[in-house]
Amino acid sequence: MRQPRLASVIERRLLVNYRIDPAAAARLLPQPLRPHLVHGHAVGGICLLRLGHLRPAWAPSAFGLRSENAAHRIAVEWDGPGGVRTGVYIPRRDSASRLNAWAGGRVFPGSHGRADFDVHETPGRIHVALATHDGDTRAAVTAEPADELYGSRLFADLAEASRFFRSGATGFSPGAGGRLEGIELHTRTWHMEPCRIRAARSSYFDDPDRFPPGTAILDSALIMRDLPVHWQPLAATGTGHLAPPAR
């Protein structure tokens, strides 16, 4: 089945970033993906995403759905026909929406697990926690808006961080039969703001079997709000080959 182009509004996108030992990151990636390094570090993170008006691109926004979602990600690169490409590998996607969980891997790329979310937002603080229904993954983040990017060893400033994440708009997830399922984010606007992390934990990045002590270190957080976007599915492909967008 041909997967439709989707439209939505990113009402909130909280990016919680980890700097990761490149060898530890590389062990988790399928071919031909490899870690995209920044100042010698691989980059991982949690994307805590509230989507509004999610719908096929041809449908009016009034018919769209609203949901809380989470993606655990590792920044990657690969060799494309025109040179090195960059994006993210998403080993785990979860959603509070039953429909998203059913449609992931069917109507749009990337299988989604189900999760319960606990969200509290004020102008001065945001708290998002999740626990997946299969018991595999738990995460909780508390962050506050900040005037500048504090304490990051990945990014010298907000401008560098913004350029990095804008260049990683292609996402791949594991699919059936060892295939990679991909999707590209398209938007005409782009605005990020720095956050100060007050507390953060993730059973994915805190797992010592996946990341031995000292190989995944909390680095920084950024937030985006009210961003109209389109999502373009990519043709599913076997590992070792990456296909162009499905038109």
How would you explain this protein's 3D organization?
The chain is mostly beta strands. It is built from three helices and 13 strands. The chain has helices at 22-26, 98-103, 158-166; strands spanning 6-20, 34-35, 42-56, 65-80, 83-95, 113-122, 125-132, 138-145, 170-174, 179-186, 193-202, 216-233, 237-238. Strands 1, 2, 3, 4, 5, 6, 7, 8, 9, 10, 11, 12 and 13 form a 13-stranded mixed β-sheet that branches. The relative contact order is 0.22.
By DSSP (H or I, 4+ residues per run), the number of helices equals: 3
Total E-strand runs: 13
Provide the helix percentage: under 10%
- Specify the overall morphology: globular
Beta-strand content bin = over 45%
Q: How widely separated are the two ends?
A: 13 Å
Q: What is the mean pLDDT?
A: 90
Order of helices and strands: EHEEEEHEEEHEEEEE
CA radius of gyration = 17 Å
Structural class: mainly beta
Largest β sheet strand count, sense and barrel closure = 13 strands, mixed
Which stretches are low in confidence, meaning pLDDT under 50 for 5 or more residues running? none
